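Hi,

I'm pasting everything inline rather than attaching a file, because the server keeps stripping attachments. The sequence lines come first, and each chain or strand is labelled.
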Amino acid sequence: MESGNLELQYFLSGITKGSIYAVVAIGFNLIYSATGVLNFAQGEFVMLGGMVAVTLARFVPLPVALAGAVVIVALVGCLLEILFFRRLQRHSILHLVIITIGLSIVLQEIALHLWDEKVRSLPYFTGNEISTLKFLGAAISPQVLWVLATVAVIVVLLHIFLKYTLPGRAMRAGSSNPSAAMLAGINIANMRTLAFGLSAAIGALAGCVISPITMTHYEMGAPLAIKGFAAAIVGGLGNPMAAVLGGLMVGVLEAYSVSRLPAAYSDVTVFAVLLLVLFVRPHGFWGRPGGESVREH
Amino acid sequence: MLLQVKNLRCGYGSLEVVHGISLHVCAGEIVGLLGANGAGKTSLLKSVVGLLQPWQGEIHVDGRPTRGQAAWRSISHSMVLVPEGKMIFADLTVRENLLIGGYRNPDRAMQIEIVFDRFPLLRERASQLGGTLSGGEQQMLALGRALMARPKILLLDEPSLGLAPLMVKEVFDEIVRMRDQGLTVLLVEQNVTATLQVADRAYVMETGDIILEGQAADLMHNPEVKRAYLGKGGKEIWE
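And the predicted assembly:
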C-alpha cells in the first residue's frame, strides 16, 4: 500500500472505532437525560451484545442471532433499571453512579462465568477477514461499512424517535421537567426503564457489528465505557447528536495518536484533549451551560 | 362535588406544613385558595394530585378516592394541575409542549386546533422552543397544555406570579372564560383582589390551616384576609 493513503487508512480506522464510542456515548446520554445517572455499565451492554450473538449464531442464522442478542440485552437493561434504580430513587446521584460501576464489574464476572475468558467473534457479515474494498486508494474491510451504516441508521432512527413520535417526545419532556411530565400523565418510571432498555439495545447492536473487527471479550466493556464517557463529555452531556461527533473525534484522535506516537500514548492523548476541552468549554462543544437534566425525584 | 379534600395532612421529612385541611370544589365553580408565601398552598395542591404523598386524610375527585395514587394517574381523573412558575418544557417546541399535554388524549391532533384557536399566539409560535417565550406567553402555553387533556377540573398554582399587570388581567379573563365553558377551577393565588373578583368562593390559608372561608364577595371586605397576608412582621404583600 502506498504511504500517501496511510493517512486515509488511519482516518477510516479512527472513524470506525469512533462510531462505536459514539454509540456508547449516545447510550450514556439517553440514560443521563432520562434519569440523571451516568451509567458506567454502558460498555457491558456492548460486550453482552457481542457475547450473546456469538452464542446464538451457533444455533440460528446470523440475522436472527443479532436480533435475539439485541432483544435479550435490551431486556437485561430494563431489568437492571427495575431492580436497582427504580427502588433506589431516593439515593443521591453519586450513590447511583457508584452502583453502575459495581454493576459493570458484576456483569463482567457473570459474563466470565457464563462464557469464559476466551476471545471470540462473529463471522464477517459479508465477505471474510481478507476481503477488502478500495476506497480512494485505502483498503477497507466491508465490515467497516457495516459498522458505519449501522451506526448511521441507529442515529437517524433515534433522532426520528425522539423528535417525531409521542413516546420519544414524552421521554424528552420527562428529562426537561419530570414533575410537569407526570402531571401530563406520563409514567416517568416507565420512561426511565425504556431509556435503559433502548440504551442497552443500541449498545448490543454496536457490540454485534464491531465483533468481527475488534473481537468480543468479557473485559472489553469497561474501556469502551470510559472512552464513550469521554466522547459524551467532549460532545456535551444531554445532547445525543453531539455524542456522535464527540465519539468520532475521540476515535480519530486515538487513531492519529497511534500513527504518530507509541501505541501506549493513545489513551493519554485522548484524555489530555478531553481535559483541554473541559478547560476551555466546561459543557463540551455542543452542550449548553445549565442544560443538564435536573432529577427531582 | 367535583373535588373533596377531607382532613388532609402533608409535609416534608418530619415537618408538617398542612395541618388537616378540608375543602371542596363544586362543578362549575371558581374557588380561590388564598394565603401568603409559605402558607402551604402549593404543598396542598401537590398532595391533591399525588406529587407529594399525603400523610393523612381523604381526597375524592368526582366521587372516586385518589389518595396515594401516582401523580401521572391524576390526569385520568380529568384533573390537571398547572404548576407554579415556569414548568413548561423549555427544550420542546410549543407544538410539542401541547402534544405532551394531550399525552393521554387520543384526539390530541384535533384538540390542538381548538387550543390554537383559543390562543392564536401559540399557533404563531408553534415551532418556537418553549423556553424562548416570555413569561406571559409561557403562562398561556401552560394553560393551553392543560386544556389539551380536556380536563373537568383545573388546579392553577399562582398563574399571576411574575406577570405584568396587563398580563395578569388577561390570564384571569381567560380563567373566567374557561369556567363559562364548563370547566371547574381551583385557583391558588397571592393576588387577593384579582382572585376575589373572579372567584365564587374562597378559602384563606395561614401557616398550614384554613382560617377563613366564604363567598368571595364577603371576603373582599373582611379585614381578617388582609391580616393573614400582613402576618406578624407586617411586611408588604409580595405580588
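The two ends of chain B are 31 Å apart (CA to CA).

If the labels don't parse on your end, tell me and I'll reformat.
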